[in-house]
Fold this protein.
Amino acid sequence: MAKKTFEEELARLEEIAELMDSGEQGLEQSVKLYKEGIELAIRCKKQLDGAVGTVSMLKEKADGSFVKQSFPAMGE
């Protein structure tokens, strides 16, 4: 099975949330969807954390030159 993209996994996570919100799933199916959703959420978070770690920004110094620095994490 080919690895899914972040966008595909996020779309599936949204689909799971909608299915569970509908209340039309039985207990067994709800538990199965919940487990799948948790696994997807963990994988998506890892991908986001990795992306934040690789994104950098250029900051202009007083002398007009630029310095590369890490992008601040959310909440900082």
Summary: The longest strand covers residues 56-60. Residues 6-70 form one domain.
